[in-house]
Write a structure and sequence with these properties.
The protein has 259 residues and is an alpha+beta fold. The chain has eight helices and nine strands. Strands 1-7-4-9-3-2 form a six-stranded antiparallel sheet. A three-stranded antiparallel sheet has the order 6-5-8, with no helix packed on it. Helix 1 packs across helix 4. It starts with 17 loop residues before the first helix and ends with a helix.
């Protein structure tokens, strides 16, 4: 087996050590989420919020999302993605969970902005990620009086990471489509010990995206909830079934926008 002991993130990303990376992984295993506090400075959050406000105007005050590296060009997030320490940390987590090296060091970023009536359609949209490691950066979280903040809600580590793409696709079709109404029921969430995770802008929240069924709780149509998701480590990156998985994902989002 490939030696995986030397996975200390280099200096430059909160001076994390291999021991702290292990503690983060343990928290993800035991409670579902590991948190690094006060990582992203207020100056970067302010620039992101300005960018988001402009984009909301371009999207008529409704939900939108950007996927891939293209949208980050020229934004204040690009230096974060290029931080060698962050990639090393995510690679370390992947290796500790999968016991092999990731197929690449590619980070797949997603910006989600929930607002307007369309934003409500994306609440309780429970799903598994296609990536082993997911990092969530809250940018804008509603915090007004009696304003629902849209907490992260998850069923932590409900399954193992799937090594075969076709198994992952079939399981996602079953869980995310045929059974999608079940996960929204309060009694089911209580029975299966769903975890509610309050989000604080500037923190980084790490969880096993491929293993944990997760969604966001609803926000008011007049609110804005925005997060950046960093996905890392797709064990099916080279699979012939990957294109099918991506098409199903796009079709699902389009159907939600039409409903």
């Amino acid at each position: 087996m490939t030696e995986l002991n030397d996975c200390t993130p280099p200096d430059g990303f909160a001076t994390l050590s291999a021991a702290s990376a292990q503690a983060l992984a343990n928290s993800m295993d035991e409670s579902g989420v590991g948190i690094l506090h006060h990582i992203v400075p207020d100056a970067i959050l302010a620039q992101l919020r300005s960018f988001i406000t402009h984009q909301i105007e371009q999207h008529n005050g409704q939900y939108f999302s950007f996927e891939g590296m293209e949208w980050t060009a020229g934004t204040c997030l690009r230096p974060l993605f290029e931080e060698a320490g962050l990639r090393a940390l995510m690679r370390c987590l992947y290796e500790r969970k999968m016991r092999t090296r990731p197929p690449s060091d590619r980070i797949f970023p997603v910006l989600r902005v929930l607002t307007g009536t369309h934003g409500l359609r994306h609440a309780h949209n429970f799903h598994y990620d296609s990536y082993v490691v997911t990092v969530l950066l809250p940018v804008l979280i509603p915090n007004g009086p009696s304003e629902p903040p849209g907490h992260l809600v998850m069923f932590p580590n409900m399954r193992d990471a799937r090594r075969f793409a076709v198994v992952n696709i079939l399981e996602k079709l079953l869980v995310e489509n045929l059974l999608k109404q079940i996960w929204r029921r309060p009694n089911v969430q209580q029975w299966l010990s769903a975890k509610i995770v309050p989000l604080t802008p500037g923190n980084l929240y790490f969880f096993w995206g491929m293993r944990s069924l997760h969604a966001n709780q609803p926000c008011l149509p007049t609110s804005v909830r925005s997060t950046v998701l960093l996905h890392f480590g797709d064990p099916h990156e080279g699979s012939v079934f990957k294109g099918l998985s991506q098409r199903l994902h796009v079709r699902r989002l389009r159907r939600m926008d039409r409903d």
